[in-house]
Amino acid sequence: SSPHLVQVRERIRINGQPISKELFSKYFWLVYNRLEETKDPEHASMPAYFRFLTIMAFHVFLQEKVDLAVVEVGIGGAYDCTNIIRTPVVCGISSLGIDHTSILGDTMEKIAWQKGGIFKPGVPAFTVMQPERPLEVLRDRAQEREVSWVPRGWTWGTPWRRGLSCLSPQCPLYLCPELDAFEGDHRALELGLAGAHQRSNAALALQLARTWLQRRGCRGLGELKEVPPGVELAGRPVPLAPAFQPTDAMLQGLRDTEWLGRTQVLPRGPVTWYLDGAHTTSSVQACVRWFRQAALNQDKPHDGSEVRVLLFNATGDRDTAALLKLLLPCHFDYAVFCPNFTEVS
User: Nucleotide-binding as a keyword (predicted)?
Assistant: First the structure.
């Protein structure tokens, strides 16, 4: 995953934990020296930072014999260096937003085209509710994926009737139902990550996890809730995947998930920090909704014993003025702006 918050080892985790300094150092030099020895003398350059770490991550996962690797794309998808995996078990695309416009394009449709580049022939894919046009672009990208091979043990047919055990020749793309659809009677799903936007991420995670478990032949994954006739397409360009009853392990996974620096509340003595890494219009709007719910739902004392300070930083070619404008409803007393460079005197 990327980026890291404090140290680069966070990008390569096993069982949720960043690999140790010893393992990182061992694999770093092993990969670095191998590349150095075998690089083309005519064009003697090493892979760039992100590309090197991606190669190293794959090497770590292979050497440490992980059962499952979850790989997050760096930027976009179509031309990202993580996109060399030919036959992933499943692909997922979360909410689209306007970001990295100089690389991905300046419209949601262009960005959707780039994101859909991770789809693979015969490999199921899931996405969450998107605006109509970008969703149509994702659908078209999925339909472009023609197949010249069949993954071992899989046959063609109608997916969902037998629970994704059979696939269509293109990339079968499905829309995740809302998280409410996964909740049983009188039991709300508890999420370890705060913010309403995490509910669509959780619904996507459930579908990806179930697909992988099914591919492994696991039993007792909860009954699929059949989609009523007519609801499946109901004006959507992409069919709706049926919800199912999450297993106890899935419920625990959602409950125990933590991701530092994202909608994180950190009390430290008299100061309470509210941390988030939002850097697009849609994610800052989601951050504001979370912050107002988490911190601003009570009136501020009039004696001046509480002040609200915005500590703000942004990198790259992002429209900082537009992002700051979205933060106005938070009514901060002070704002502190951090530069992107450090000087040592």
Answer: yes
> How far apart (Å, rounded) are the C-alpha atoms in residues 181 and 159?
19
Break the chain into its structural domains and give their ranges: 1-67, 70-148+166-258, 264-337
Which of helix, strand or coil describes residue 111?
Answer: helix
CATH class of 70-148+166-258: alpha beta
Strand 271-275 relative to strand 264-268: parallel, antiparallel, unpaired? antiparallel
- Tens of pLDDT, residue by residue over 69-109, are 999 999 989 999 999 999 999 999 999 887 777 777 889 99
- Report the 10 Å Cβ neighbour count for 164: 20
Distance, CA of 244 to CA of 41 (rounded, Å): 55
- According to the 3-state scheme, what is the secondary structure of 312-343? ECCCCCCCHHHHHHHCHHHCCCEEEECCCCCC
Provide the whole-model pTM: 0.84
Average pLDDT, the chain: 86
